[in-house]
UniProtKB/TrEMBL annotation:
Domain Phosphoribosyltransferase: 376-572
Descriptive protein name: Phosphoribosyltransferase domain-containing protein
Matches recorded under InterPro entries: HAD-like_SerB, HAD-like_sf, HAD_sf, P-loop_NTPase, PRTase-like, PRTase_dom
One Pfam family, short name: HAD
Organism this protein belongs to: Meristemomyces frigidus
Gene Ontology MF terms: L-phosphoserine phosphatase activity; magnesium ion binding
Gene Ontology process terms (BP): L-serine biosynthetic process
PANTHER family named in the record: PHOSPHOSERINE PHOSPHATASE, URACIL PHOSPHORIBOSYLTRANSFERASE
GO cellular component assignments: cytoplasm
Length: 576
């Protein structure tokens, strides 16, 4: 607590009472903005001191000058500055303000990643997450600059001297793109309008934003793909982008990570963007595409599995990105492609250093090499898995249960993966009509991975009776005789635990016929084998692989004797 300026009414300017040591010491300053009427009342009621005359106009001038000078000094010295209007709930607001000012980089990153964890839904199990910047990436506009323009218009001239303080902040040598700069930007937005006014300004801003059609298609694709999720991460105003997406029919499905107001609790910095990408890769075991346009996005572009630089019209694009991009390519090993929006704009750098990307929507879709389907929580799966897990059931009854699962997975899911084709049949009433079978059914090879996979493989064969059927104890048992002229191989095993056996079969088959489609079908698969670092996940880098499972298990368990699936199927539980 302290004073900044003293100013009597007969003086032209006030006298500041601070030292350079103060500026070197303080990291945050909160200005308590008490109303002019309240200050007059307090001065009049002060019986302890003799105070000179100070009319309302002078008190207001004094306050305005203090705020302007303090803001300028804090701006030049890298000190967080905020204004808090005095009111009845001063204590709780001061506490919230202090908590905000005391939030460290580590605390902030924790809050951002916690938000990511909430948004990544485990039941979707996406393999690919597309992380997109917002301003000048999703649309050719800087919504922050637009916000300040609208504030000036909306304020009836009272904010004519505001300009765009956030842009000025990031351009200042004391701030640049530091963590403190993003915290201060939030305080500037916080001070600019009340909560309700801020919402209204965000509405007005969002109305003027039209998304690039090419990225609209990508955003919509994320809604309809089980293996793909889209996250928008912005260092700007989260509420604006939520409203933009809502206006384009995407708001309830595409999540936005970002701040803008103190109540949001966190800010999104370049470090935050990189941390989000790395967190998705390591914690959630996902492949990440990052899409951005400016130096703020470079850390996440460098961390991502695939990086795309959006290049817009020269009047809109970041002026500092060219040199930053060149440096990242030359000295930090950035590998990226550029997406021209619209397609006729001048590319950045050279297309040798930064190759062009066209049809990003299709490129991301085809990057999903591991397609995974399961029925874990469905009523059908719960019924079908019951006899398979019942220790009292073995032998013929268990083999029949496995056979039913094979038929169910083939009819319910494999039919959609492989597609169907018409075949002529004779209707019971005598006329010809259309029936259906699996597409290229006769050019499909079913491989029963012995011995646990045999019963389920018979069930698959029931659904596609004209397919080849092969018993294989080892990968080498599948020969060219079983593969020549075939389009698809369906590998069937009762249980996939580590996935090591599946990997051996897949690599052997690909070695013989690299272009053949491989589909793995199983009753239960261990989730860890599918995650980044798991052996099956590693196969996705080598080519397209589809896995169909009745259910997913969180436990890795290798049975023996009475708990071994093969022994239970064939009544050999007494054997080692």
């Amino acid at each position: 607590m302290g004073h900044f300026m003293f100013w009597t009414e007969d003086e032209n300017t006030g006298k500041t009472v601070y030292t350079q040591a103060d500026l070197d010491t303080y990291t945050s300053i909160v200005y308590l903005d008490t109303s002019t009427d309240e200050i007059e009342r307090r001065r009049a009621g002060d019986m302890q001191r003799q105070r000179g005359v100070a009319h309302a106009w002078h008190i207001q001038r004094w306050k305005d000058e203090e705020k302007a000078r303090l803001r300028e000094l804090c701006h030049d010295n890298g000190i967080l500055f905020s204004i808090m209007t005095a009111g009845e709930d001063d204590y709780s607001r001061v506490l919230k303000m202090l908590q905000y000012h005391l939030c460290t980089v580590e605390m902030n990153e924790g809050l951002v990643l916690a938000e990511v964890d909430k948004l990544i839904t485990s039941n979707q199990e996406p393999q690919i997450v597309v992380v997109l910047d917002a301003d000048k990436t999703l649309a050719p506009v800087d919504t922050g600059a637009l916000y300040w323009e609208l504030l000036k218009e909306w304020s009836d001239g009272t904010a004519d001297n505001i300009g765009d303080p956030v842009s000025s902040l990031f351009q200042h040598s004391a701030w640049k793109y530091s963590y403190s700069a993003f915290r201060q930007a939030t305080l500037l937005y916080n001070d600019s309008a009340s909560a309700s006014e801020f919402e209204r300004l965000c509405d007005l801003t969002a109305i003027q934003v039209d998304l690039f059609p090419e990225l609209m298609s990508l955003l919509r694709r994320g809604l309809n793909r089980q293996h793909l999720q889209v996250l928008v991460i912005t260092s700007g105003l989260r509420r604006v982008w939520e409203k933009v997406l809502l206006r384009h029919g995407l708001g309830s499905d595409v999540s936005v990570i970002g701040g803008g107001r103190m109540d949001d609790g966190y800010v999104v910095t370049p470090l935050s963007k990189r941390s989000v990408v790395q967190h998705l890769q390591t914690r959630h075991k996902m492949r990440v595409w990052a899409v951005g346009d400016s130096p703020i996005d470079l850390p996440m572009l460098q961390a991502a599995d695939r990086a795309v630089v959006v290049v817009t019209n020269e009047g809109v694009r970041s002026r500092t990105m060219e040199s930053a991009l060149q440096s990242a390519i030359d000295h930090e090993g950035l590998v990226a492609q550029q997406l021209l929006l619209p397609a006729h704009v001048r590319p950045r750098l050279s297309t040798r250093q930064l190759p062009l990307m066209d049809d990003i929507d299709r490129k991301i879709t085809t990057d999903i090499h591991l397609q995974f389907h399961h029925f874990t929580e469905t009523p059908a799966a719960k019924l079908l898995m019951t006899p398979m897990r019942d220790a009292r059931i073995s032998g013929v009854a268990l083999r029949e249960a496995h056979r039913r699962v094979g038929w169910f997975l083939a009819v319910q899911c494999l039919s959609a993966v492989m597609n169907l084709e018409r075949k002529p049949i004779v209707h019971v009433q005598g006329q010809n009509t259309d029936g259906y079978c699996f597409e290229n059914e006769a050019r499909t090879t079913i491989v029963a991975m012995m011995r646990g996979g045999e019963s389920m493989a018979f069930g698959v064969n029931d659904a596609m009776p004209t397919a080849y059927f092969v018993h294989a104890f080892e990968a080498k048992d599948v020969t060219n005789l079983h593969l020549n002229g075939q389009t698809t191989v369906v590998l069937v095993d009762a249980v996939v635990n580590s996935g090591a056996s599946v990997v051996q079969f897949v690599r052997h088959i690909r070695g013989e016929h690299p272009q053949i489609r491989i589909i793995v079908m199983t009753g239960v698969i261990y989730r860890g084998s599918l995650h980044r670092g798991g052996v099956i996940h590693g196969l996705s880098k080598e080519g397209l692989l589809t896995i169909i499972a009745l259910r997913v298990s969180e436990n890795s368990f290798k049975g023996s004797r009475g708990t071994d699936t093969g022994n239970r199927l064939f009544m050999t539980t007494h054997l080692k």
